[in-house]
Specification:
By secondary structure, the chain is of the alpha/beta class. The protein contains eleven helices and twelve strands. The strands form three sheets. It has a seven-stranded parallel beta sheet with strand order 3-2-1-4-5-6-10, sandwiched between helices. Strands 7-9-11 form a three-stranded mixed beta sheet. It has a two-stranded parallel sheet with strand order 8-12. It binds nicotinamide-adenine-dinucleotide (NAD).
């Protein structure tokens, strides 16, 4: 199979590309990535010499480029997006452009060129906040941040191309991911790298917002399972292996880095901060045989060790982005 991976130089997309290229199945991967501030060719360094990898620097909103690129691909796995909620609160335009318009450009080209399968990688955030219990796939979307609203727009657009045109679309909605190569503005790599350097970390509001966490390897395994075995037009949840408040998460990272609470600074809460996300992922487990493999304690310890051992990866990124 020849797979077009959009956003394949980002955190999750590069993990997916690296996994595919080290797999004995022999599938070929084309990465299409604009290399925005969080896209990084170094994320593909371990597979850079693979004859099965083609890297194309470009924008998913560029209809001519996408039209030229897509013929010959059997599937599209669509990760490319603007992803940082805080940035979407400051300015939403790039989120609407890439997440909504870019997805429409890809869907149109997939339709025009008869691409066999389109996997749209979405997020638990499209449902908005849930105080108790878990979301199921058929529940209505009620996003509350510009990021999640733009993701919801693209998610619904992808499903509409299935309903309207019969395009073979499958959608995954996943919990928060953690692991190596995550851009150090997101909570786990930001806290980890600051704490390794003895620098303070910012905790939003009272720190009681709840998130589910999943290792990026498990998310990528789920995406791959859905690519190969998911039913057209269906949505599949991929839940976390741990549910923690941000304060609890901070405590785990302090313990892992040998630091104390004196480095935790309470800062004004994010505007419109969702309290809690939680997914019921029975469907992917029962119908596709998915099960996560990485338990949170081991995954987090390995992740902290990775950032400890890969300063050369994150130090220039933090400096360039002027992150604390
Ligand atoms: P990321 O921000 O690390 O990477 C996004 C990648 O997309 C970058 O390489 C960037 O250069 C590229 N990109 C951005 N705009 C582009 C454009 N216009 N054209 C081409 N490439 C462009 O994001 P991530 O955390 O790896 O997330 C990947 C996908 O998974 C996103 O769709 C996100 O919504 C979804 N998701 C993420 C999480 C999470 O916890 N990180 C959870 C669930 C779903």
């Amino acid at each position: 199979m020849k797979i077009l991976v959009t956003g394949g130089a980002g955190f999750i997309g590069s993990n997916y590309a690296r996994t595919q290229l080290s797999d004995a199945r022999g599938d070929a991967v084309t990465v299409l990535d604009k290399l925005t501030y969080c896209g990084n060719r170094d994320n593909l360094a371990p597979v850079a010499d693979s004859p099965r990898l083609t890297f194309v620097e470009g924008d998913i909103c560029d209809a001519d480029l996408v039209d030229e690129l897509i013929p010959g691909h059997d599937a599209i796995v669509h990760f490319a997006a603007e992803t940082h909620v805080d940035r979407s609160v400051r300015t939403a335009a790039g989120f609407v452009r890439t997440n909504v318009l870019g997805t429409q450009v890809l869907l149109d080209a997939a339709l025009r060129h008869g691409v066999g399968r389109f996997v749209h990688v979405s997020t638990d955030e499209v449902y908005g906040s849930i105080e108790h219990g878990t979301w199921r796939e058929e529940q209505p979307l009620a996003p509350r941040s510009p990021y999640s609203a733009a993701k919801a727009g693209s998610d619904l657009l992808a499903l509409a191309y299935h309903a309207t045109h019969g395009l073979d679309v499958v959608v995954t909605r996943c919990a928060n991911n953690y692991g190596p190569y995550q851009f150090p503005e997101k909570i786990i790599p930001l806290f980890t790298t600051n704490l390794l350097d003895g620098l303070p970390v910012p905790l939003y509001g009272d720190g009681t917002q709840v998130r589910e966490w999943l290792h990026v390897d498990d998310h990528c395994a789920a995406v791959d399972l859905v690519l190969r075995r998911g039913r057209p037009g269906e949505v599949y949840h991929v839940g976390g292996t741990a549910e923690l408040t941000n304060r609890e998460l901070a405590g785990r990272l302090l313990a892992a880095t040998g630091r104390g609470w004196d480095l935790v600074r309470t800062v004004a809460d994010r505007k419109g901060h969702d309290r809690r996300y939680a997914l019921d992922d029975t469907k992917i487990r029962e119908r596709l045989g998915y099960a996560p493999r990485v338990d949170f304690a081991t995954g987090l310890a390995d992740t902290v060790a990775w950032y400890r051992d890969h300063r050369a990866w994150w130090e220039p990124l933090k400096k360039a982005a002027a992150l604390p």
